Amino acid sequence: MNEKISSLFDSEINNKDVDTLLSKKSKMAGVRSSMSDYQLISDVLKKKTIFPKGNLTDKIMTAIDKEPTQMGGFVKANSSNTAVMSFEILPVLASLAVLIVIASTAFNIEVNSTSTNQFLAKEDIPQEIINAHHAATANNMNYFIQVGDSAK
Amino acid sequence: MQPLKIVSENSTVYNSPNNKLDNSKMEIKPVNPDRALDQKLVEKAQKGDKQAFSLLVEKYQLKLYRLISRMVRDQSEIEDIVQDSFIKAYRAIGNFRGDSAFYTWLYRIGINTAKNHLVSLGKRPKAMDANEIEEMENYESMAELRVSETPESTMMSNQIADTVNGAIQNLPDELREAISLREIDGLCYEEISELMDCPIGTVRSRIFRARETIAEKLKPLIETTNKRW
To answer: Are residues B122 and B154 in the same domain?
Structure first.
């Protein structure tokens, strides 16, 4: 296993071995400790300044362990996901559009029942047609006479 | 055992009878950071795998520490900034798209965290243009470091350096050659296998055995150092 850690440190490890290392959660402290030793050796050989690291990784990971884990993973806002998102939104948008049409229709019916629209409609009809309509319609008196006549 | 001859800061030649390192064959290529591995670890961290993120922390915390030490002198402040930077990176890892290398993204978080820290202390962070930020991101090759050192930490650093150098001198030739080609010359396993004329698996094994041998010598010193530091 330590040979895999050495390869991991050099980024010369294959995906399968990374999965193997990560699957052994109980041994992760050992993995990190070995990587830390390798880093120290590397720094000395490269003549870099050695820093007091102590248990900084442990402190960082303790703080990160307090962070919530999203079991479903984080939302990744890449282009492919954006495309998927738009397909997911389409049915919602369609439903919203239907609701708007229904609401608008209902609103128009209500508006048509107002006197303003009646008045406008009356103005739109030519006067001669209105006169003809009145002439052809029985007034109250004529109605009763007609009823009376038909009763005979 | 042959002496180790340093011919330049980044290249080493060995006077070994089995030495395959003649100058005509030697073509030193710096190893580029393996973005593929980082990307794999990032993807796992994005799915909630904290162990994968812990490997990124282990891999980059010291580099981030060095970066921050160029802006802040106090050791405990540097540690706080490094810690905050990784927490911010973890929170934002879902937004990391892989357009740049993970370490570039992390270093920018680190620089911004350090700047905010300085502002919160009433100090004016130095305004940096794009070139300076890039220079800081590639600071690895720079020798200038400003972190405050105590006599005790300097002494321990020297002890660690002496132990590592002593251990490497005592390694068998093939192990010393493999680890040095990797660490000092920065060659990848494939290049080392060509130079040493052996399979990549053998290179992998030699580098690992060299590290383990040196680490074994360092162990008592590291335990003492961690207690004191």
So the answer is: no
Residue B85 sits in the same domain as residue B69: yes
Dist. CA B213–CA B171, nearest whole Å? 8
Asked whether the ipTM of the predicted complex exceeds the cut of 0.85, the reply is no
CB B167 within 8 A of CB B218: yes
Is B16 domain-assigned? no
The answer to whether residue A81 is domain-embedded is: no
* Token pair of A63 as six digits: 């703080």
Report the distance separating Cα B172 and Cα B12, nearest Å. 16
Encoding tokens for residue A135? 């002439």
Contact A45 B184 (CB under 8 A): yes
B180 contacts on A by Cβ (under 8 Å) = 45
Write down the pTM of the prediction. 0.64
CATH of the domain at B91: 1.10.1740.10
Do residues A40 and B222 make contact, with C-beta atoms less than 8 angstroms apart? yes
Q: What is the largest CA-CA distance in chain B?
A: 61
Would you call A17 an interface residue with chain B, using a CB distance cutoff of 8 Å? no
Interface contact flag, A35 B179, Cβ < 8 Å: no
- Quick one: CA torsion of A139, A141, A142, A143, rounded to 10 degrees? 80
pLDDT 10s digits, B94-145: 988 888 889 899 999 999 999 999 988 887 766 665 666 666 555 554 444 4
